[in-house]
Every structure is written in structure tokens, then in C-alpha cells.
Structures
1.
Amino acid sequence: MLIREKLEQRGLVIPPAQVVPEGMTFSYRRAVRHGNLVYIAGHGPSEGAGWGAPFGKVGVDLTVQEAYAAAELTALNVLGTLEREITGLDDVACWLKMTGWVNSGPEFTEHAQVINGATDLIRDLYGEDKVAARAAVGAPALPFDMPVEVDAVLALQ
Amino acid sequence: MLIREKLEQRGLVIPPAQVVPEGMTFSYRRAVRHGNLVYIAGHGPSEGAGWGAPFGKVGVDLTVQEAYAAAELTALNVLGTLEREITGLDDVACWLKMTGWVNSGPEFTEHAQVINGATDLIRDLYGEDKVAARAAVGAPALPFDMPVEVDAVLALQ
Amino acid sequence: MLIREKLEQRGLVIPPAQVVPEGMTFSYRRAVRHGNLVYIAGHGPSEGAGWGAPFGKVGVDLTVQEAYAAAELTALNVLGTLEREITGLDDVACWLKMTGWVNSGPEFTEHAQVINGATDLIRDLYGEDKVAARAAVGAPALPFDMPVEVDAVLALQ
């Protein structure tokens, strides 16, 4: 089954690219290909012109469940970037590494449970033998007060 | 001398793999090989069924010396994962990158001294010409309240 | 135009390598080459024997503008390491990934604006089609109380 079909089956939609404020320019790329390696920039739970998750600190402004959903949406954005900027979703040979940052305070310890929202989706779509090595860590704050940020390295077929 | 012999000479033991609570599944791999590149997930100072280091924040719950030992144990776990999941310890051509996160508060500045616990071990085992580029940074908290987390990228021969 | 000429045109100078206190040894390398991949260690705004930026937390001890300048200086140090330890600045085929940590408190959200100081320089020197994927995140503290830390992966021609 194609990845797009699996997404549809789960009722999941890849959001459109994050809308960029007029006049804003970027000095980085959302994805860079080198040979069959692809580096994906840090993404968050954006949804086109808005945000698909509450802002703020997990454990304070969001529950772990809400943050799990934000991490899943973040992974959908990673997939959207891959598809729009590099190649089709079915061209992935293997996910190599994902790093997930959780916007959280000094008492928080459930980083893994939050970032599972991103990596569970990748597992469900690509299978256990293609999932990435992962690091899940805390950050005292993130750009735009996003609750999570996830980047990735993957190999194409 | 084999890496295993160097470990023995130093009285160091690679702990068994971290025991996974029954029913728990993972959506990431501890190590992923692509060609001769290996990506190792974020590891901590676990020891089989338990933890080989005090929990908590370095500078508050642990001294820098205790955290150095925790980082060394973390590097032993990185080696254990490499050996159990990918290939023998002597097949490493070069360590490419290690990132070390230190669970610490806003006043802490000795991240390098802590993460040295991991990279000093790699240097002692593999030699100065094979050590990784490194980033050592703070995190306000880490999964399970681990004092340190370290991931790695390496090249096989 | 050569990268060195572009730097000169902008009045920018790559600082000398950070002076290492006598007797201090390192268990990591500032840059590691594997094939045509280069991994650059986490760098900060050092300037030879001193520091070219105020210490401390962005938003408290430094303004965003000062931190932008610190990130630019950090990128100059990344270039200096590349040139001293691996190869000439004009041998870069493509910047693949940069991660930027901003030393900042829980209320800070302008991480992107700070790390732009590093990636804007890379864009100005190498062009938009060679810039890296990027992650910009917060850290509660950084080694030596540096305001920013940046690491990089790049491909050589």
C-alpha cells in the first residue's frame, strides 16, 4: 500500500506548507538532499497559515496527550516537506535519525512519550524495520513557543 | 589490542541492554546502519534492569564527577548497542559526531567536563585520530530524569 | 568570487583558533571528514584568546541583535575550523545541516532570529542553493555560558 493510502486510511492529512509572512526570507532550507541522504530541518506542529497544536510548555500548557498529537502533526509536516521539496513519500529506503525537542520545564520527564507521537507515525507508515534511531530531549523554550520540534535524517532508495 | 581487551584492562564492563517493561514497544531503533554509516540513538546511564548513575540535575543532584561517570557509562551503553545490533566494536573506522545533553539548570556551565566522560572513553579505546566532532549542551530535563544523554554517528570500516 | 574575498568585502575576519589552556587535552575533534561528508563540532563566539560576544542568556544578558552578531561570529569560527582542519572554504559543495542552540530562559521564543546570524552568513557567502537544513532550539545553559552554540554537517565537492 502506498504511504498516501495509509495516511488516508488513518484519516490523516499532510498540512500545506507553513505560510511565510510577506517579505520574510530564509537562510536555510526545509530539506537538503546529498546523494541518497536527506536532511530535514527542525519542524513544528504548523498547519498552513496557523498552528495545529496549543502553544507552550508540555506538562503546563499542554498535556502529554496533546503534545503527542502535536508531535504526530510535526511528523506529518516532515513528510510534507519531503514530498514537496525532495521526492515522493514511497522513495524512502530508511529513516536514519530523528531528534525531538520537547518544550518543557525542569520537572518534566516524559519526553519519550511525547516524541512517540512522531516516531509512532513513521513506524505505522513505513514499518518497524525502517524506523530511525532517535534522541528525545527537553528544551526550556522553542521558536514561536512551539511545544515540540523534530528534525530528521533519512536515506532514499 | 582489541577494544574488548582494552575495556577489560580498564575494569570496564558493557552493561546488558536496558530491560524493557513488559508490553512496551518502540517506534525507534537503538542503532541504524546505512552503508557504512551508523546512527546511534540517544542513550543514558542505564544498567540492564536499573540505572548506574543517580538521577537528576548535574550541579544539584549529582556532582560533575558523578556526571562524568554517568557519561562514561552512557558511552559503554552506546558501545553495547553497536555490538548487539550492528557489528563488532573493532569494526569502527571513525567516530564522526557525538552530541551530549546535560540535565542541568540555568547556572550550569560545565557541560564539556561532563560529556568528557563519554568522549574520553572513546579516545582511550579508539585513539585520538578516531574521535568524533562533538556538541555538549544543556537540557532543562531529560527522559526518566537521566543526568546525561548521548547520541552518535560513526563510520564502519 | 572566492569566499575569502566575499568575507573581506564584508569586512569580516575569521578569528584565530580558540586558545587552549596549557595542559588541556581534548577527546573530540573540531571537525571530522568521512568521504566527502564533514562533521563540525559545536562552536561558540570565541575569538582566539577571548570571546567576541557577551556571555549569558539571550533576552537577559544579551539582546537578540547582540546574539545575532554572536551567531555570525560562531559561523566564522565554523569556517575557520573547516579551513584549518579539513580543506579550503571554496571546496564546500553544500551545507547539509546546522543545529543552533540559544542559551535562553523559558520565556524566550526568538531562537530563529538569533541563529539567522549564522545561517545568513552562510547564505551570503555560498548562495541560497547551498544553505543547510536547520534546527534552532533553546538550551537552559551552554558551556562557558556562551550565548549560542552551532554545529554543522556539510558536503565537499
2.
Amino acid sequence: MISFDDLRSLARPAETKIVVLVLDGVGGLPRAADGKTELEAAQTPNLDALAARSSLGLADPVAPGITPGSGPGHLGIFGYDPLQYRIGRGVLEAVGIDVPMTDRDLAARGNFCSVDPAGLITDRRAGRIPTETCTRLSGLLETIRIPGVEVIVRPVREHRFVVLFRADGLEEGLSETDPQAVGKPPLPVKAEAAGAAKAAEIANRFVAEAGKLLATEQPANMVLLRGFSKYPRLLKLTELYGIRAGVIAVYPMYRGLARLVGMEPVRAGDTVADEFGALQAVSDQFDFFFMHIKKTDSYGEDGNFDGKVHVIEEVDREIPRLLAVNPDVIVVTGDHSTPATYKAHSWHPVPVLLWSKWCRPDGAARFTERECRTGSLGHFRAAELMPVIMGHAERLTKFGA
Amino acid sequence: MISFDDLRSLARPAETKIVVLVLDGVGGLPRAADGKTELEAAQTPNLDALAARSSLGLADPVAPGITPGSGPGHLGIFGYDPLQYRIGRGVLEAVGIDVPMTDRDLAARGNFCSVDPAGLITDRRAGRIPTETCTRLSGLLETIRIPGVEVIVRPVREHRFVVLFRADGLEEGLSETDPQAVGKPPLPVKAEAAGAAKAAEIANRFVAEAGKLLATEQPANMVLLRGFSKYPRLLKLTELYGIRAGVIAVYPMYRGLARLVGMEPVRAGDTVADEFGALQAVSDQFDFFFMHIKKTDSYGEDGNFDGKVHVIEEVDREIPRLLAVNPDVIVVTGDHSTPATYKAHSWHPVPVLLWSKWCRPDGAARFTERECRTGSLGHFRAAELMPVIMGHAERLTKFGA
């Protein structure tokens, strides 16, 4: 793959506008009834018309056979090889609730748990306490004072929270406190990397203080921490290509992932229509738009084939509004497959559609996995798509003479 | 990609003959009138018949989305990853006028420029002096004597020339003298790499002497040097595979690029027919032929769709003469795309046709970008083609037992 250094040396300014529309988990599998995938079962006249004028292909989000999480799936689309660029669990949890992080922060995933009077774990999830309780207890934990350290605690959902330790000199490389079994005490945090001693001491102090503060709570009278990680110092997509990029996404996780690579969140409502409305509203303010549609994935995970089909059709009805902002490059794809028959993220390659006035149209009849198999983009790694997008946007100059 | 070390260990002698026919910039885009690319619009009965018996594919010359210059485009075809093997600007300029270089040479691109009495640049191109003047002044510069150094100066075109410093101990890593602006003096050459001090001293001395020699000339009374680079020490294609390779090309640039990898220039005339005549004339003298057709690219750059179509048709008429030399492997491809509608090199993948008696015929109807999309060679990096060629030529033995 071409390096960021090379790409940066080739990047050149242009007036072109790019829209990358990601239908989360859009790749599917055939249902038993008629052998059609979700994309094949959907009525998508607008996407089909666009497909006929576009170049198609299939992308492996991480590598062939590998099922991606949301983080790697999106890093790939953004042009970062997910095998090389990794986001720690703590950071992903913070990103997932869209908590802004700084370079000084060390993040961890937290679970409220239950311990007996001897300090042995009786429930690693504290009976999955309601989110409201989690919110109250997170506020309590945020009162913990550690000299020289800013402690930020945010509820996630049920027993899950995220903690950020903000201070100078905090390094990654900490062991986790969850023994992954009941009947054992939480483990002390150990520094497993040079330079992580200070962070380990702070984390242990936080756990000790949390134990005191929660002593009278039931059932959430202790915490477990894991996935200690720092905010990744990525070369921002926006710096690399000299673009201004906006993210339109209903779920905070995706705004957070996009922020990692330099995109600015755009206010949108809660529906698919709201998202396309937001695109129209701010179309002059950015060179690059990442639009994220969540519910294709949610219905896929639920095994709701028809629900996923309906979201695809809902998106299709909005395509004219996307075309109306006159993008120079349009990409429609997914971050991974979530076949409704499989009810989970899967390893299957993802359909990709790329339109620009400079694309070689494949003349496909529809935008489906099957049509994408023989498209002129070929079968490629998702992280290789971004240079192709920038090529079509005339934002890369010639390599060599 | 398989390494040269591995390939060298697999290479074995054979009596087979290979012809690689490169139509420069052959890849195209559909024209508005009928949606046909140049290859689709051309009448190519011979190429089509060959395509029906061949394996097809699409190649990315450098990487997806990257527009290659001629140097990287050809290195890829010759089996050298252009991202790994780079040719400096000075060397490319020397290669472009087919000046033989040695391992001791440091090359630079030169511009004749104009300076005022205070030594400030008034025109970075000296009013684009006629090539005849450039030739005379280049001869003048070649009279410069630097102890222990052979100085070779050759005119290129208008204000451009190339200079070679031939001596022991010259290393790359020099800053250029062109300040890229008028109203400033030429910059001194600085050594930016360890070991480059000697080369910097020589370059500065050359510039000082040039200033004296040119003092009475108008408007070309000074020089600017850039792109200092040494001849790349490539493992030659010919050594790697133990072949004797000849290059048939009308333009010196392509003979020079082929010489970089060990090919020997074959005398040919100026026309496409001359080139195929040369192939027939020397067909017994080489195992491998690289034939280069320039005008597909020239017409592409000019936006002359019909002109490009006619060159493709001209080549098609010569295909029987190619077949008549009984190659064991025939490849027809391009070094990059130059769509006439785009009027420039582009990033689009390049159609590839490979015939041998051992190929799996795809049964394609034609040799076009569209047919190549679904060919059995797949969609690959150009540098991966050479081992496939050598495989079909039975010039690679089994890997492992």
C-alpha cells in the first residue's frame, strides 16, 4: 500500500466535493425464500441508476476472512490499514460516547461489579444495573481526587462506564483488573511497558478510592478496569489531503471515529431523512462528507431481514437529495457485512460503488454484492479506497515523471 | 509480492520467446457520443482474436488511485515495484535523451536562466531559448574542467539540459539551486546527506564556472540545477531471469528506461510499422522483447480520441507480424491510462492481455477495459505481472518441494 508520506507529497488542492455514504453492515447473504440478499431484495431505483454510471467493486474491510468491529471497519474506509492502526478498547469506549480526548489522556473501560465482604467478585456486571444508576455512580467516581491528575468518568450503558486519566507522562501498557471469573478478587494494575509505572499507580489508586466510595452501594460496590489506552496520534485524513471534512452520523460512536481522523461533526437529527437534510444544509461548508447510516447494521444484528431492506429503501429514496448537492465523487459502501441471516458482523467483503465524472462505468444493472463482484474497482482492501477517491477528486498529482 | 531473491532462485533457462507490447497510455474512458472507450471504438480484429485465446486482467501501475509518470509506469511493467524503486529527476532527464550513465555518475536537470547584473533571477527559463541555442551553450558548458571529474552536458529541449558529473565518491542528497522564484539569486547546493559533501562542492564549482562562461550571453546567462540523482543500481531484469532482452522504441526515453533494467536497444525507424519490422528482423537475437508504441499516449494527451483510435488500429494491423515471430508468450498492455477525454495520464487501471499456449483463455469478445475487468488475471499490481509472464514462459521452477 502506498504510504501516507507518499500520499502527502502527491496531495494537491482542488475545488472538488466528495460524499462517502456508509450503510453500516450493508453487505448481506441470501435468504432462504428466494436466494436474495438484502440489497437484492430492496427496491432501489436510485442506487441502481447510480450504479449503472459507476465503477463497482468488493472491499475487505480488514483482510480476507476477518470480521471487523466498528472501529477497524471505519478506519479502513478512512484509509488507515486497520492491521497497522489500532484503537484501544478504552479509547473506543470513549469515542463511542463521543467524549473528546486529548493526547494526555489514558482511557479505560470500566464495569461496575459486585464483591463479597472478603473482596471476592460475585458478579462481574453488578446485575447489569440500570443506566440511571450507572450515571449516578459515575458522578460519584468523578469526585475522586488524585493529585496532578484530572479524572473524568462517563456512564456508557447499564454497568459500563469509561474513565479518562488526564495528566502528563501517562503511557500505555497496563494489565487489566478483571480476573474474568467470579470468586476471585480484582487484580492489581501492573505496568507491563517501560514508562507505564505512573499510570499503573494512578489506576490502582483510582480503584482503591472507588472501592471506598462504593462500599455502601448494592449491588455495584466495586469496579473493574480494562483496555487502558491512549488516544492514537493519527496523521489526520484532513491534514493528509488538505481537506475540510464533516461527519453526519446519528450515533456518537461514528462521530467519534470520524473525529479521530480530523472530521468535524455536523448537527443532524435522528432519522435518515434528517441526515440527508443536514448534508444539504452544510454542503458548502466542507470538501468531504462522511455520512453514516446505522440501522442497516442494527436490523442485521437483530436478524430482521425486512427491517434492513426497508432502511436500504429509505436511503435509496434520499439519493436524489445527495445528488442535488452536486458531489464530484460519490461513494456508497459499508464498513463491514452484517447479514440478517447471520445476525452478527461477518467477514464477507463489502459492496462498493464509486461514481465520478471520470469513473469507468461498469454498466451494472443494480447495486448489489453480485454486481460488485465483477466491477472495475476489483476486489481490494478497504484502506486502498481512499486514494482512489482522491484520484477521482483530482486531488492527487502524478507520481514520478 | 515475491522477492527478487526468491525469483532469482526459481529462474531457470528455457528456449521460450516473450514479446511485451506496451501501448503507452492505452487505457481510456468512454466518450460522450456512444459511451465507448478508445479500445472499444477501435476496429481491432487481430487483437480481439488474440484476446479470445488469452487471459485478461486489469493492472494498477503503481497503486490504486495513483497516476503514474512514464518512469514508474514502465518500472511496474518491468517487474519493479515503483513505490520501492525510484528514479531521480536528473537520471530520468538523462534517460529521456538516452545518454548512457555509469554507476559513478551523478545527474542533474539543468535550466538555462536569466539573471540581472546583481545576480538576481529575472527569468527561470531564459525566455525558453531555441533548442539550437541550448545545444550550443551545452557544448560551451562541457568545456568546464573540474579536476578528477568528467563533466558531460547534453541539451534536452529549449532551456532544458542535463549534466552528468562522473567521478568516484559522488553521493545523492543535494539541495537544488532553483529558488522557484524570480528576484532571488540561485541558491548554493548544500549536502543534505552524509557523504554528499564532495558532490555539493563539484556542483557549486560547476555553477560558478557556468556563470563565468555564460556572462556575455543573452538571455541565457546563468544555470539552475535540480533533481541531483545517481543511476539506480537495480538488479537487472536480464540478470534476474537470465534472459537477453531487446527494446524496440521510437522515443529515447523508453529505450533509456529499458536500458536501466538491462535491455539492449534495437534499431527501429520512426513508425509503428518500422517497429514491427525491427521485431521481425532481430527476432532470433533475443529471448525477450519490449516494444513501445508512443502515439497512443500522445494523442490521449492531446485529447485526440480519433487519433488514439487510429494508432490502436494501426497496431492491430501489425499483430500478424508479431504472431509470425512465434512468441511463446505475448503480452499487450499499457504503462498507464491516458484517456483522450481526460487529456492527461490518469489513475485508471490498465487492460492486460496475456497469451501463451499454457494460458487459460477467458474467451473474451474483445480486448477492452470492460472485458479485462472480469479476466482470469484479475485486478493486480503491474509489478506482479512479470513473474506471471516468466511462469508462462516456463522460466520459473517449482517453489518448495
